[in-house]
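Appendix C reproduces, verbatim, an entry submitted by the partner laboratory led by Prof. M.T., so that reviewers can inspect both the input and the predicted structure.
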Amino acid sequence: MLISSTSNSNHLILLCFLLILGTVTATDHIVGANKGWNPGINYTLWANNQTFYVGDLISFRYQKTQYNVFEVNQTGYDNCTTEGATRNWTSGKDFIPLNKAKRYYFICGNGQCFNGMKVSVLVHTLPSPTASPVANQTSNSSDASPSVLTPGGVGLRALVVALASIWFGSGWM
């Protein structure tokens, strides 16, 4: 079967579109949102309103001449001490990958930890496709977010059919 170059180009464009559509993106959690990394902010409240997954980023925005960020253990977090810190950042725009499912502890190391500049975040593993609550629940809640490629759903099946059509050169697309 001979396929024209226009047909190949259209299939390639469709494949690229589907791959981009199916790509999972990480979330960049900016500590303190528009208030940044500064004293006197309740970072516990901020963290409790976030959901962190492996692969996400946590970003600290601050004046680099005044503040910094240290990753510490729970003892360092509780006592506001950098002793035994595992990493530190000083750029003022620090993007820190959350690569493991665990609890992370961050403090400001110049004494401002005692003024509230500390945050602890719990990072979860990504939900497995078979345990997806979106695919298994029925809800009429207005805050339920739509899912384009729900595991087991129509979107995933459409992606498989489209890819099979491209791969095997079906003319019906």
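Helices lie at 5-22, 43-48, 74-79, 133-136, 154-168. Additional entries are available on request from the coordinating office.
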